[in-house]
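Hello Y.,

Per our agreement to keep a running log of every chain we model this quarter, I'm adding this entry. I've kept the format consistent with earlier entries: sequence first, then predicted structure.
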Amino acid sequence: MKFIDLDTQYQLIKHNVNNRIQAVLESGQFVMGHEITELEQRLAKWVGVKHCIAVANGSDALLIAMLAIDLQPGDEIITSAFSFIAVAEMAVLYGIKPVLVDVDPETYNLKPSAITAAITPKTKAIIPVSLYGQCADFDEINHIAKQYQLPVIEDAAQSIGATYKGKQSASLTTIATTSFFPSKPLGCYGDGGACFTQDDKLALKMQQIRNHGQAERYQHVRLGMNSRLDTIQAAVLLTKLEIFAEEIKKRQQIAANYNSKLKHHVKIPIVKDYNTSVYAQYTIQVEQRSKIYEALNTLKIPTAIHYPVAIHKQPYFRTLVRAVGEITYAERLAEKVLSLPMHPYLEEADIEKICTALIRNLQ
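Predicted structure for the entry above:
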């Protein structure tokens, strides 16, 4: 049993993906080949925005988005206290202070009602993370942002393919970013990422930033970086896009199966009625997590903890971030969350084994 099964997926797409990779090798266009443009066009169409800018990884995508909206060292951004470290990490790297607020205990996403108290004259953006595959509440977040004239960047690293009130994740904010790390619902065979926007000027800035800030060769018009997606990774993603919609359906069916078996035993993930989730993770909450984790590991059932430490309690970041208000739920989730195997090729027998073992060890 595998936590994420890329081997089975590869066997299904082996012929097509090998052919696409071979075409890149024969073309010699390893950087910014035509597959990059094709991927950007197809992803922009999927999401429903004018522009997609492919970049080297999801973390770079966040920093590029921050640079595009002209954040400066000393500025503040508001983000979630419970998430992967990337938003806080990229902000701190550029001298921006992450201001952390609590999360919704059901969706695990940034709690809109906590935002206003965190806004100061130094606040220059709100960066919610759409965690585990479900979008944050962007109507509420965007409403607050509009009141204070703040741009919003969605970190959609885990939510590409999800919808919010009928609209695709990554189409809901000033800019959105995503990651194509192999374990993501849409992942390549290495690192990769992208930025999305409807704004022509922001798109041009991000295209320049990813390529050393160049407007044309050796004409550096802004601060930039080297963050171009490899053409081979674009070829992989183009192949995977062909099966992405079907894989999302399978993820949702597996999650529904988990829910029906576990809903009376653990706190299962809640997806709001107006949302769909791509279930980048299927994450439950359990008491005595260490005991459950070890018991399942003994039975060779892989699990993971996303994430065991709230961001404001990470050793390096304690003095570099500012937590506002009570961070009760973020801290509680860090103690209780447990992610179960989740991928489109999980068999019914495996789901039954996982749930039976989990329930037995809860008793």
